[in-house]
Amino acid sequence: MKTPDHNASWGKPHLPKLLGKRGQIFSTDLIVSSIVFLFILTLSLIYSTEVSNRIYLLEADNARNLAAFSAANSLLLSSGSPANWENMPDLNYVSSIGLAKAGNEIHPAKLRKLMDLNAGNYNGVRELLGLAKYNLRISVLALQSRESLAEFGFQPAGGKSASAANRIAFYNGKEVIMRLEVFEK
Amino acid sequence: MRNGFVISFDALAALLIFLVLLATATAYLAKAEFKAGSSLSLKETAMDCLAVLEESGKLEKAVSSDRSNELRGFLNTLPYSICADLRVYSQNDLNTPALLVLRPGCRQNFRESATIQRSIVVESAPNPLFYIAELRAWYRVAE
C-alpha cells in the first residue's frame, strides 16, 4: 500500500517536475508566431508606403489636370487684365493673360505678343497663368489640317508626366485647336 | 510533441485575414482614378464646338438653308477620339429636331456623355426665329 506524500501541498502537485523544464518562452510556436507577425508588419509597412506613393501620384495628376484646365479656360475665355495687356511695355503691368477677342475667339495680336514673350518672359507667363510649378507648351493647330499656326513654351526632354487641355476656338477666320500641355518639372 | 498548436494556428489565421484585407484594399485602390477630368473635358469640348459653330456663322447658315453639310464637315474635323451629334430645334417644335447631324463613323454606344444647349437667333423676315442647338459629345468606343 502506497503511503500519501505529506510533503506535497495543494496547488503544487508537480512542482519538482515543472522546475526541471525551462525555455517554454522560446518554443517553436512562439518563433513561428513571431515570424508571422514580423512578416505581417513588414508587408504592412511596404504596402502603406506604396499606397501613400500612389495617392501622392494621383493627387499630383489631379492638380496638374485642374491647373491645365483652368489655365486653358482663362486663356480662351478672358481677354486678360488689363484687357490691352499686349500693349504693355512689360509683364509688371499685367495681372493676368488672356487671348480672347470674344468667347472662344483668339485675338491675333494677343497671340503674337504671347509668342514674343517666349524668348525672355517664359517664367513670367507661367506665373501669370498659375503654372509656376510646371513647364508648359501652348500650340494653336488648324482644326482641319493640324498644321501648327503658333507655339509658346517647350516640351521638356525625357518622359515627364503631362496633362493636356484641348480647346476648340476660332482664330483669323479659321477653326483651330488650342492645346495647352502642362509638364512636371 | 504537440504543444502550442493553437498559437500557430492563430498566427496563420491572422496572416490569412491580413492577406485578404490587403487584397481587398488593393482592389479598391486600383479603381481610384481622376474621373472628373474626362467629363470636364467632354463638357468643354461640347461648349467650344457650339460657340465656334455660332461664331463662324455655320450654325445660322445651316438653319437658314436647311442643309447640314458644313456642320457634318465640322464634326468630322474634331479629334478622332471625340464623337458628337448635333440637333437643332426650332422654337415652334422642341420635340422634333429641324436638323440632326451625327459625326460619321460614330455610334451612340457611350457610357458617359456631355450635352450642352445653346440658343441661337436666325434673321428672318418679318421676325427673327429662335432655335436651340443641342450638342452631345462622348468618347469614341473601340468596336
What's the total count of β strands of chain A?
A: 8
Sum up the overall morphology of chain B in one term. Answer: rod-shaped
CA gyration radius of chain A, whole angstroms = 35 Å
Number of helices in the DSSP assignment of chain B: 4
Strand order of the largest sheet of chain A: 3-4-7-8-5-6
**Helix-strand pattern of chain A:** HHEEEEHHEEEE
Name the chain pair with the biggest interface and residue counts per chain: A-B, 37 and 33 residues
Q: What is the averaged pLDDT score of chain A? A: 85
Radius of gyration of chain B: 27 Å
Low-pLDDT stretches of chain A: 6-11
The oligomerization state is heterodimer
Keywords:
heterodimer, A: 185 residues, alpha+beta, B: 143 residues
Task: Explain the overall architecture.
Chain A has 185 residues and is of the alpha+beta class. The radius of gyration of chain A is 35 Å and the shape is elongated. Chain A contains 4 helices and 8 strands, in the order ααββββααββββ. Chain B is of the alpha+beta class and 143 residues long. Helices cover 44% and strands 24% of the residues of chain B. Chain B contains 4 helices and 4 strands, in the order H-H-H-H-E-E-E-E. In chain B, strands 2-1-4-3 form a 4-stranded antiparallel sheet. In chain B, strand 3 and strand 4 (129-139) form a beta hairpin. The model of chain B has no long low-confidence stretch (mean pLDDT 85). Chain A binds chain B through residues 27-30, 32-33, 36-37, 39-40, 43-44, 47, 51, 54-55, 58, 61-62, 65, 69, 73, 76, 102-105, 143-144, 165-170, 175, 177, and chain B through 3-5, 7-8, 10-12, 14-15, 18, 22, 25-26, 29, 32-34, 37, 40-41, 44-45, 48-49, 51-52, 55-56, 74, 77-79.
